[in-house]
Amino acid sequence: MASLYLAESRWLRLTAFSALYAAQGIPIGLLSIAIPAWLADRGMALGEIAAYTAIVSLPWGFKLIAGPFMDRFAFLPMGRRRPWVLAAQGGLTLALLPLLWAPDPLSNLFALTVMGFVINCFSAVQDVAVDGMAIDILPADERGRANALMAFGQAGGFSLFAAVCGTLLSRSGLPAAALACVLGVGLIFLFVTFTRERLGERLLPWSEGEAAARTVAPERDFRSIFGKLLKVLFLPMSLLLTLTETMNRFRDGIAVSVFPVLAVQELGYSLEVYTQFIGVAGFLAAVVGIAFGPMIDRYGAKRLIMVGLVGAVTLSYTVAATASLWSITGYIVTAWILASVFGQILFIGLIAQYMNICWSPVAATQFAIYMSLANLARSIGGGLFALVAAKLSYVQDFLLMGTLLLLAGVSLWRFDLDSHQRRLDALDTDSAGVGLRAGANP
Q1: CB 177 within 8 A of CB 30
Q2: C-alpha distance from residue 105 to each of 98, 110, 115, 270, 272 (Å)
Q3: pLDDT surpassing 50 at residue 442
Q4: DSSP per residue over 322-386, as a string?
Q5: d(Cα 304, Cα 247) in Å, to the nearest integer?
Q6: Are 357 and 241 in contact (CB under 8 A)?
Q7: Would you give the end-to-end CA distance of the chain in angstroms?
Q8: In 3D, which of 84, 412, 418 has the Cα closest to residue 240?
Q9: Is the Cβ–Cβ distance between 317 and 399 less than 8 Å?
Q10: Which residues sit opposite 196 in a β-bridge?
């Protein structure tokens, strides 16, 4: 059996993390792109679709629950994070199976929502484990490139499966679309089964091997974990970046329901055309994102995020001001592609910046909290929008989204990574002084 160790091979690290992010993208393509467009195609109201997307995405807002357990409990002979990745990836594969027998969504939207919620529970746990493993394994000078490829993997996953699932939903129904997702996620589960974190670790619990030496050991109790979290989460730059991402995700919570309803019910695009186009646009954005990855390592994540925010704000206000041009296919297609590109740039930059501000002893939990708050903000944004969706025009929807992104840019303007790093260094010194931890930051 081939020995595949993430810590020993750059190409394997980049391939594995890209594949694991693709696994997260598969249910996104089905649950957050194809199904909302399918519901819109079958005449469901914008408010109902917004409520569905808000509830289905809620598990991504509760990832902070999983983080402390991953920092506290570990089966080190199989790796610090890999056992959690395997369990979550296997659970995600199984959670997709009930969709093969799902009832008609128009008369049983609640059942579909519950199934989607459960699927995203496993997907969210997998995400926490993968992010923690990335922070542990990736060298600091490789994170920009890795984040670009991970974002490419996720975008590739949801782009491909949005198109595939949209076509299958239109022609064969939900069971066929669900089967495609099961096969995609299952193949990635097999891949990670044969991939280890570090040299000498076990492939499976009953295999030969032992725990590898590592710089940062798991925390021994929850009290220590939460004590350190309180020190790092409320640092000024941590709060500023969280505010930036909250405004960005509020906007995402609105967009995920507005875009398919606008395309299908207002502009007259079919379900297949819309989902296939979103797939192509997402893939193009992912390719562009790869080019921006090395720029993070060279110029810093803050500049990349600001480029994405300026572009997205300008686009939102421009689209709102040019409603008379929406019926022109070339115009609206260009706008959607640009929206996908700017969204991908923001995703890559913000993920990289969050990794930069994490503190090693509680990195998995800290990162999970940031991502939980971001995804919770998306659900809250979608839920609040569902209450007023019927009262707003599409033009007002775009004005609202643009304003939220503008507020995100204002918050980011005062962010200073160097200042945050000095504070982390001070925390390291304090921890070493009381015998809690000695070592360097990531």
Answers
A1: yes
A2: 14, 8, 11, 18, 18
A3: no
A4: TGGGTT-HHHHHHHHHHHHHHHHHHHHHHHHHHHHT--GGGHHHHHHHHHHHHHHHHHHHHHHHH
A5: 17
A6: yes
A7: 32
A8: 412
A9: yes
A10: 5
pTM (2 d.p.)? 0.73
Helices and strands, number each (H, E), in the chain: 16, 0
Instruction: Please give the domain boundaries of the chain with CATH numbers for all domains.
Output: 6-203+218-431 (1.20.1250.20)
Mean pLDDT of the chain: 84
- Measured in degrees and rounded to the nearest 5, phi and psi for residue 199 equal -55, 135
Look up residue 170 and give its two tokens: 């239109």
Dihedral sign for Cα 67, 136, 140, 195, please: negative
- Residue 441's pLDDT is what? 41
d(CA 224, CA 412) in angstroms, rounded, equals 30
From CA 96, how far away is CA 178, in angstroms rounded?
A: 7
CA 356/CA 54 separation, integer angstroms: 29
- Stretch 48-63: mean pLDDT, rounded? 83
Please list the residues that pair with 5 across neighbouring strands: 196
H/E run at residue 231: helix 222-233
95 neighbors 119 (Cβ within 8 angstroms)? yes
Question: DSSP 3-state assignment of 5?
Answer: strand
Enumerate residues 6+ apart whose C-beta is below 8 A from 365.
64, 67, 68, 70, 71, 225, 229
